[in-house]
Design brief:
The chain is an alpha/beta fold and 339 residues long. 26% of the residues lie in helices and 25% in strands. The strands form four sheets. The chain has a seven-stranded parallel β-sheet, with helices on both faces. Strands 14-13-15-16-17 form a five-stranded parallel β-sheet. Strands 8-9-10 form a three-stranded antiparallel β-sheet. A hairpin with a 2-residue loop joins strand 2 and strand 3. Helix 4 packs across helix 5 and helix 6 runs parallel beside helix 9. The longest helix is centred in the N-terminal third of the chain and has 16 residues.
Length: 339
C-alpha cells in the first residue's frame, strides 16, 4: 500500500498503555475492537500509539494484535506517566496524523489522558463505553454507554469533530487471540520537551498496599446484601480460596462498609469477565449485572426463586447460602460425598 493511500485511509488509533514496559491488557482488548470497527469502515487501518522510555519491544506485540503501524515517542521524560508530557506528545501526533477514531482504556491513566487530549484537540469524548460500532448510515463511531445509573443505554455520535474519542473499561471487550506472527511499521516521533518545561516532578514513589486485581481474575465469588453482614464474607473467601479466585461484591455491600471498594463489581465498580462467577445473595440489579454479564459461566445462589439474577445465570441454586456454600467448599476440597 502506498503512503498516499495510507494517508487518505481513515486511521483507527488505540492508545497502548504501559507501565514499566508492561502493556496493560486493555490495550489488546481495544485492538480487537478496532479491528472489528475497521471491518465496518472499509479502507480504514488500525494503528497504535505508544509512549514511554525503552518501550520499542512492545510494538511487535501490537502487530500481533492487529496494529499495522505503531507511532512511538520514546523519551526519558516519559519513563513515568505525567499528564503534561504525555498530553503534549499524543496531541502532536493527533494534529499531525489526524486519526478518525481514537480509543483509550478507561483506567486511571487512560481516563486522565483521554480527557486531556480531547480538550487539547477540541473534540468530544465518550467515557466508559460498553459497546463500539460504526453507524451504518453515517459511517461514524457509535459509542454506547450506560446512563441514569445503568438503567438506560445511550449511543453517542461525534458528527463534527475529529478524532472521535472513547474510553472503554478493562474486560468490557473480549480479549482477541494474537496472531502467531505479524509485521508492522514502527514510526518514531520526537517529544521536543525538556524537564524544565514540565511543572510536575516525581520526587519518589511510596509503594501502597498490594491492590486486589479483580478485573482479570478467572474465578470470582461475589456476595450481596443477602450475605447478611461482613462476617458472611469469610465464608465466601474460603470458597474463593479453594477455587483459586477472589471475592467480589455488589454496591450495597460496599456502601454498608462490609468490604472495600476494590471488591465492587458493577456500573460504579469494576467490569469483570471471569471463567466462573458465583453470585451469592445478589438479587441481580442491572447496576451489578452490567459489570459481570461477560462471565463464561454464572452460578447464582439465592433464597428468592424470583430473583432477577437467575434469568442470566447458567446454573441456579435456590436455597440458603449458609447451607449451600459450605457444601460447595466441601466438594471443592474433595471432602464431600465420601471422597
Amino acid at each position: 500500500m502506498s503512503e498516499q493511500l495510507e494517508t487518505s485511509s481513515p486511521r483507527i488509533w488505540v492508545f497502548i498503555e504501559q507501565e514499566e514496559g508492561q502493556p496493560h491488557p486493555v490495550s489488546w482488548e481495544l485492538m480487537g475492537a478496532a479491528g472489528r470497527l475497521a471491518e465496518e469502515l472499509p479502507g480504514s487501518v488500525v494503528e497504535g500509539v505508544l509512549l514511554g522510555h525503552d518501550v520499542a519491544g512492545i510494538a511487535p506485540l501490537a502487530y500481533r494484535y492487529g496494529a499495522k503501524r505503531v507511532y512511538m515517542i520514546d523519551d526519558p521524560l516519559l519513563e513515568t506517566y505525567r499528564n503534561m508530557p504525555y498530553g503534549v506528545g499524543v496531541s502532536k501526533l493527533v494534529t499531525k496524523y489526524t486519526p478518525e477514531i481514537f480509543l483509550f482504556g478507561a483506567t486511571t491513566l487512560g481516563r486522565d489522558l483521554a480527557g486531556t487530549i480531547a480538550t487539547r484537540v477540541h473534540t468530544g469524548l465518550t467515557a466508559d463505553c460498553t459497546e463500539l460500532a460504526i453507524d451504518p448510515k453515517q459511517k461514524i463511531l457509535a459509542a454506547t454507554r450506560p446512563t441514569f445509573g445503568g438503567n438506560l443505554m445511550a449511543t453517542i455520535l461525534c458528527r463534527k469533530h475529529r478524532p472521535q474519542m472513547a474510553t472503554v473499561r478493562p474486560r468490557v471487550l473480549p480479549m482477541p487471540e494474537p496472531l502467531a506472527e505479524a509485521e508492522g511499521e514502527l514510526l518514531r516521533e520526537p517529544l521536543d520537551l525538556k524537564e524544565s518545561d514540565i511543572p510536575v516532578r516525581r520526587l519518589r514513589l511510596i509503594p501502597g498496599e498490594e491492590q486486589l486485581n479483580i478485573e482479570y481474575a478467572d474465578v470470582i465469588v461475589a456476595g450481596g446484601r443477602g450475605v447478611g453482614g461482613p462476617g458472611g464474607f469469610k465464608l465466601l473467601e474460603e470458597l474463593a480460596d479453594a477455587l483459586g479466585g477472589v471475592v467480589g461484591a455488589s454496591r450495597p455491600v460496599i456502601d454498608a462498609g462490609w468490604l472495600s471498594h476494590e471488591h465492587q463489581v458493577g456500573q460504579t465498580g469494576t467490569t469483570v469477565r471471569p471463567k466462573l462467577y458465583i453470585a451469592a445473595g445478589i438479587s441481580g440489579a442491572v447496576q451489578h449485572t452490567v459489570g459481570m454479564s461477560g462471565a463464561n459461566f454464572i452460578l447464582a445462589i439465592n433464597s428468592d426463586p424470583k430473583a432477577p439474577i437467575f434469568q442470566m445465570a447458567n446454573a441456579s441454586i435456590v436455597g440458603d447460602l449458609y447451607k449451600v456454600i459450605p457444601e460447595l467448599i466441601r466438594q471443592v476440597k474433595g471432602t464431600g460425598n465420601g471422597q
